[in-house]
Amino acid sequence: MIRRTFLALTAVTALATGPAFAAGHSMDIVDTAVGAGTFNTLVAAVTAAGLVDTLKGEGPFTVFAPTDDAFAALPEGTVEALLADPEALAAILTYHVIAGKVMSTDLSEGLTATTVNGADVTITLEGGAKVNGANITAADIEASNGVIHVIDAVILPPM
Fold first, then answer.
1. Residue 5 resides in a domain
2. Of 36, 37, 92, 138, which alpha carbon lies 20 to 30 A from 24's?
């Protein structure tokens, strides 16, 4: 009886969660970020920079996504100034994007990757995975057109 109940519960759980996992992958990077609720500033920035259609495109893309707290940690007035300068904003945002799907298992110490911006980022693993010093706080959030890795800081391209 216990075994039958366990098997029934397992089957119900698999049926109930299967569509949820499938639905999660049907959303693109932008919709996944919107749905998370912790990337409001990033979504506003992507919109202001005119990058929504790009990040809703086929991809695949790997996005190192700064949280709202990461944007809030920038010096006062920085976000507002960037939102008013779409070209500079696009340069910073595309520095957070790599063409192709890079999962956390693909990361290695000292790995460099060229961003859509054209500049390289460096991955370090000592003390936890980081991209250019920003901690990767959540990894491998899959979307239909790539993957998101959450970071705790806005990374800035070399000037």
1. no
2. 92
